[in-house]
Design goal:
Chain lengths: 152, 110
C-alpha cells in the first residue's frame, strides 16, 4: 500500500516537472510572440491621456485569466515557505498571468478599433481558492484600462 | 453610455456629477469545473472554466452599474474600479463602481 502511494507521488512529481515545464515554456514562447504582435498598441498607466484632443472612441477594456502551476512547482513553493526566501516558481506564475491578462486587454482594445490603452490597473480575485488545501498554486489576474483611438 | 476608468473623457466635458454608481454579483463555482481544475493543478495551465466564469460575472457587475447610472439619467461613468471579496468558500463577490456623470461634447481641459 505504501509503495503505491510513493509510486503515485513520484509519477505526479515527475509528470508535473516534465509536462508542466513544457507547458510553461510553450506559454512563455507564445507570450513573446503575441507581445511582438501588439507592440504597436501601447499600454500606459497614466491617469490623464496625453494630447487628449487627438483621440476618439474612449471605452473601457478588460482582460483576465485564471492560471495554475504544476504539481512539482506547487511542492517546491511549499518547501520554500519552510525556509523563506524568494519563490521563483510563484514569480514566474504571477508574471505569466499578468502578461496574459495584459495581452487579452490589448486584444479587446484592438477588436474595438482602438490603438492605445491608458490608466491600466491590475487586480486579482479568489474564487478558486480552497480552504485548508495547500500546494495547489493558482492565480486569477485581471487587467482593465481605458482604450482610445489616436489619429483618424 | 460611455464607460471609462480615467477621470476625464477625451473630447467631452463633464457637465454634472451625479454620484457613485455600483454593481455587484456573487458567483459560486461548480463541481464540474473543479475536476478540470484539479487536473490543471497537476500539469499547469489555464483554468478556462474559471476564466469564463469570472469574465461573465464581471460583465454582469458592469451591466448592473450601467443600469443604475441610466436610472440617474447619466450618459457616462468615469473612474471605474473593480474589487473582489471572498464571501464564502468557493464563491466570490465581484464589485464594480464608478462616478456617474453627464457629458457634453467639447474640449477636455487637462
Amino acid at each position: 500500500m505504501f509503495a503505491i502511494y510513493v509510486g503515485l507521488f513520484i509519477v505526479l512529481l515527475s509528470g508535473g516537472l516534465v509536462i508542466g515545464g513544457l507547458r510553461e515554456r510553450k506559454h512563455l514562447r507564445e507570450l513573446d510572440e503575441r507581445e511582438r504582435e501588439y507592440a504597436d498598441l501601447p499600454v500606459l498607466n497614466l491617469k490623464t491621456i496625453p494630447n487628449a484632443h487627438e483621440v476618439s472612441k474612449p471605452q473601457m477594456v478588460m482582460g483576465q485569466v485564471v492560471i495554475a502551476t504544476d504539481y512539482f512547482k506547487s511542492l517546491a513553493t511549499m518547501l520554500r515557505s519552510l525556509v523563506g526566501g524568494e519563490m521563483r516558481a510563484a514569480n514566474t506564475l504571477m508574471l505569466r498571468a499578468r502578461r496574459e491578462a495584459t495581452l487579452r486587454m490589448q486584444a479587446h482594445a484592438r477588436r474595438r478599433g482602438c490603438n492605445e490603452v491608458h490608466n491600466v490597473r491590475y487586480g486579482a480575485s479568489t474564487i478558486s481558492q480552497k480552504k485548508g488545501k495547500r500546494g495547489a498554486m493558482q492565480v486569477e489576474m485581471f487587467a482593465w484600462g481605458t482604450a482610445v483611438k489616436r489619429g483618424a | 453610455m460611455l464607460v471609462v476608468n480615467t477621470e476625464t473623457i477625451p473630447g467631452h466635458e463633464i457637465t454634472k456629477v451625479l454620484g457613485l454608481v455600483q454593481g455587484n454579483t456573487i458567483r459560486a463555482k461548480h463541481v464540474g469545473r473543479d475536476i478540470a481544475a484539479e487536473l490543471k493543478n497537476l500539469i499547469g495551465g489555464e483554468l478556462t472554466g474559471y476564466t469564463e466564469l469570472l469574465t461573465e460575472a464581471r460583465r454582469q457587475a458592469v451591466e448592473r452599474m450601467m443600469a443604475q447610472a441610466e436610472q440617474l439619467g447619466a450618459d457616462a461613468i468615469v473612474n471605474v474600479r473593480f474589487t473582489t471579496s471572498a464571501v464564502a468558500a468557493g464563491a466570490a463577490e465581484l464589485y464594480a463602481y464608478g462616478t456617474a456623470v453627464t457629458i457634453a461634447p467639447g474640449s477636455q481641459a487637462l
